[in-house]
Amino acid sequence: MTKDAFNALLKTLEEPPPSVKFILATTEPHRLPKTILSHCQRFDFRRISLREIVERLADIANKEGLKITNGALVLLAREADGSMRDAQSLLEQVLAFAEPAGDKVGQSTVDEKVLQDILGLAERQILYEISSAVVQGDARRCVELVAAVVVEGRDLCRLSRDLLEHFRNLLVVRLLESGTKKSEGLASGQLLDLPDQEVEDLRSQAADLSLETLLDYFDFMAAGDEDVARSAHPRFALETVLVRLATLPKTLPVVQLLERLEKLEKKLSGEMRTVAGPIKDTLIQSPRAVASAPSAAVPIASDREKVWQDFVAFVRREKKFLASHLEAGTALELSPRQLRVGIVERHHLNYLQDMENLSALTNLAKQFFAADVTVDITGLAADDAARKNESLGTGAAEQGEGSPMVKEALRIFGGSVKTVRRENG
After folding, report:
1. For the domain 50-119, what is the CATH code?
2. Which long-range contacts (CB under 8 A, 24 or more apart) does 288-294 make?
3. What integer best gives the mean pLDDT of the chain?
4. CATH code reported for the domain at 124-246
């Protein structure tokens, strides 16, 4: 509405005609001037449940003589997303699509398949097939399923959003099932406004997945959905994110990790007690061995590289997207009070130098180092980065030559240490 139209409306509200009740329905109340709102009573419409929309649509379809299956009505109600107005608009499209037989519309039956053709939607079953392929680590199957959707002419951006919602639903079901009591919100439809059969299907699929794994799936799918929506080639973007999900390592629950650590500690402590006796005898019989034993201190250069890798891994656990930019950097300075990171690529540099991202990185550094660490992100030329990596490799090689195992290998096989590469994990 224009400003003049709002003024005319205000005039009507200030001097209403007798016996007239004026009702204004809008989805954008924030755009109404305060002078209009001050003369009105405001009532916000609540979200209508899936079951209520299905019942109302069934009643309308019956009066219009349209034969439509319950599954198709559920699909219509789901598309309406809690809005009765949108649900009725979609039903009007179905009525216009249905071919008349004689003088009545209702002789032709509309099922889920017909409705999917009308709205351009992929089958709900495809969501379970793709998510199952992701869980099984079958990246090839994921790509094949996307190709099948493309052949049918479905909207890939919509498929991506549906997959994001599907992983969210799996996460909610798993979260509720992990509690000691079943949530009342699940039974009332507050958390999952879905048919009972679909809730059972979600429970079945989420039963063997941990919360940590489902969180990873949702995080990656949420980031991938944004890429699909912005991409000029949504098929390529969707295939990429599904392949990444299928090849994503399964995250073990913290409880299982702690149990494994406890078992490993017990095993190592038992081995140390077994070996302790012979080592003590050897030291008594050969005092010279004590003098020639190497120092147990870890070299500083090796320490810095390991601490940097551990810090990047810590950031990856807390904020995956932030870590993806941090991994492109090199630790120029690493001390208890200062962390200076050099970045070559401009887009990584701009992202990490952003005030909000830099603040988040600084907070993570303080948590990791348990100290008041200052983080500085600086740009590097490609030549500077190469020289820095070369110097780190040389220092690591010098430290590697000091290792007793390396010395023994050089004595037996000959040769020299050129560089030392630290493997992750």
Report:
1. 1.10.8.60
2. 294/402, 294/404
3. 77
4. 1.20.272.10
